[in-house]
Amino acid sequence: MKRLMFTETAIAAVDVTAFSNITGQLLISKVMEAFQREDYVLSRLIPSVSTRMDGEKIPGIERPRDPEKDRADALVVHSAEQYPHLGFGEDYVETPSTTKRGLIIPVTKEAIYFDRTNLILQRAAEAGEVLGSNKERRLVDLAIGATNNFKWKGTAYNTFYTSDDDGPWVNRDDANGLIDWSSIDVAEQMFAEMTDPATGDPILIGGRTLLVPTAKRFTAQRLVAATETRETTNTNTTTVGPNPLAGMGIRMAVSALLYQRLQAALELDADTAKGVWFYGDPAKAFAYMENWPITVLQSPANSEAEFNQDIVVRYKASERGAAAVLQPRAWQQHRAARESSSGSASGSASDSASGLASDFSSRGPPSGSSSGSGNPFSQTSESSGSIPQL
């Protein structure tokens, strides 16, 4: 079968020569099915924000800071003394410039006439799916830190920093594999260390989403849907308790594209990519700044192209937007520690791993979950140089 190549030439079209191996058959008993696409997982987790600007500053106002965090008794007012004055400043995040993407798929009269599969027009009408897949890939790259475009108060930052980076926040742990509830506990303690850069006070993150590659699908399901935990000591004493994660409302998301992009965009080997997972609130951390959504238009009948070239129908798809990091403190990346020969994770949060007893027959998958194919879960290069401080 000849492959259809993308071209910038206006007169190029889907014509009968592209299907010379299948149009001459007298009888077709079965039509080959196309591969089913994975749902756009990250496109559902990350909200689209409508904007009429080509990149913008999202403004805010800092909260007043307690001066006694810096100087003792700064707020003490003695008799007949003047009250101290307290101010606060501006706050803003800059989003990247938006980019228009689009394509046209033209189809000739001959291609339609000799089509024995009855699929040519259907495939041509799927022009928007190309842009949808492109957008999903860019959102995945944003969520994994392959694209770093967070710019706060005029200074650019990476999305993720480890404790060794001496960065303005810590939201990446390279020794915390997803094993049991204690792995989530490590992530929660990391969130507990997050503070407001203006006031120094602890901040609340919001919702919780657990994003994993397909290799961690059932581990993630077990963690969230388990009804109880069991821990056995070296004296064969077993302690049974409720699942510590119950009631947290953790939403699970599984993406095969995530695993693919971890290898392609971050250049991780397959084993390392299988152990990477993400945790936090993607709706707070990211946004897709959208001038206009994916729009598919069909050319009108009796067009000039049809009259001159027998191009019966054309489908045009376009969209304009940009994926943006808005608050990286709300999103974490975790990687599995290197495993020892005994199979236990060395240096991970689960050195004293407790077993999880799952009862999925009596308790189904958690509500609010989403996936790429009906299952109960479903999520540019890093900048170098010195790390700017907040």
Protein described:
- By secondary structure, the chain is an alpha+beta fold.
- It has a single domain, classed as Alpha-Beta Complex (phage-related protein like fold).
- It is 20% helix and 23% strand.
- The strands form four sheets. Strands 7-15-12-8-11 form a five-stranded mixed beta sheet, with helices on both faces.
- A hairpin with a 5-residue loop joins strand 9 and strand 10.
- Helix 4 crosses helix 7.
- The longest helix is centred in the middle third of the chain and has 18 residues.
- It is flat, with a radius of gyration of 27 Å.
- The termini are far apart.
- The C terminus is likely disordered.
The tally of domains stands at: 1
The spatial strand order of the largest sheet comes to: 7-15-12-8-11
Could you estimate the helical fraction of the residues in percent?
A: 10-25%
Proportion of residues in extended strands? 15-25%
Q: Average pLDDT, to the nearest integer?
A: 81
Low-confidence region ranges = 7-11, 339-390
User: What do we call the CATH topology?
Assistant: phage-related protein like fold
Architecture (CATH level 2) name: Alpha-Beta Complex
Shape: flat
Evaluate the radius of gyration. 27 Å
Order of helices and strands: HEEEEHHHEEEHEHEEEHHEHEHEEE
Query: Separation of termini?
Result: 57 Å
CATH class: Alpha Beta
Count of helix runs = 10
Main sheet, how many strands, which sense, barrel?
A: 5 strands, mixed
Could you give the count of β-strands?
16
Structural class: alpha+beta
